Amino acid sequence: MNDESFNLEDQLEGDPEGELEGELREIAELLDPVPPALLEDAMQAFTLRTLDAELAALTFDSWDDEPSARVVRGAGQPRLLTFEAGGVAVELEVSAARLVGRLSPEGPAEIGVQRPDEVLLVRSDELGRFTADGLVRGPLRLRVTPDGGTPIVTSWTRI
After folding, report:
1. What is d(CA 146, CA 99) in angstroms, rounded to the nearest whole number?
2. Strand 79-85 vs strand 54-61: parallel, antiparallel, or unpaired?
């Protein structure tokens, strides 16, 4: 064995196309495949993760208006998003580290701003308005529970 140490992270950084990762996945699949029953159980568990909440569909994204909107507008322009499910619409404006939202129909609700490693809880006012400050770039989704209503969960969105 030679004296040079092997560092997998260095190898992956030098492989922008992911060829090494693909080869490693193939080897793992050949040598230690996922049992079919385990895969089926995992898929069922994933499906049931938000059984009590309805998944809100993304119906509007201002970045979809123009193909180059993300590049041209950059971080200085707010991103507008609308999600809908079960008669509830969640309208969002995302700018820098702040999220401003409005629910329709309006009314108080508990909103969980879910990140991969934390949840920030906020409440909407009687007009359905809410804000969340201090957000950092990365994925987030909202879990909206209107007072006396059925919870809805938005899909994950990167800010």
Report:
1. 18
2. antiparallel
